[in-house]
């Protein structure tokens, strides 16, 4: 069962990267954000001292 879940996450992440390359940014970022759920991906979650941007307007 755990292998199936990992495979599903890998598929979602890969699909997300494909969507990003096609300019479908909303779908792409949603899939790519799941990359931390699969230990087979070499991505490291950073613990930055500032909050992550969540799409809010940051213009002054």
Write the layout of secondary structure elements.
Layout (H helix, E strand, L loop, with lengths): L1 H20 L3 H8 L28
Please characterize this protein's 3D structure:
This protein has about 60 residues and is an all-alpha fold. It has a domain at about 1-35. The protein contains 2 helices and no strands. The chain has helices spanning about 1-20, 25-30.
The largest pleated sheet is described as: none
What gap, in angstroms, lies between the N and C termini? Answer: 49 Å
Number of helical regions = 2
Uncertain segments of ≥5 residues (pLDDT<50)? Answer: none
Give the SSE order as H and E letters.
HH
Share in β-strands: under 5%
Structural class of the helix and strand makeup?
Answer: mainly alpha
- What's the helical proportion of residues? 40-55%
Shape: flat
In angstroms, what is the radius of gyration? 14 Å
Mean pLDDT: 85
Number of extended strands: 0
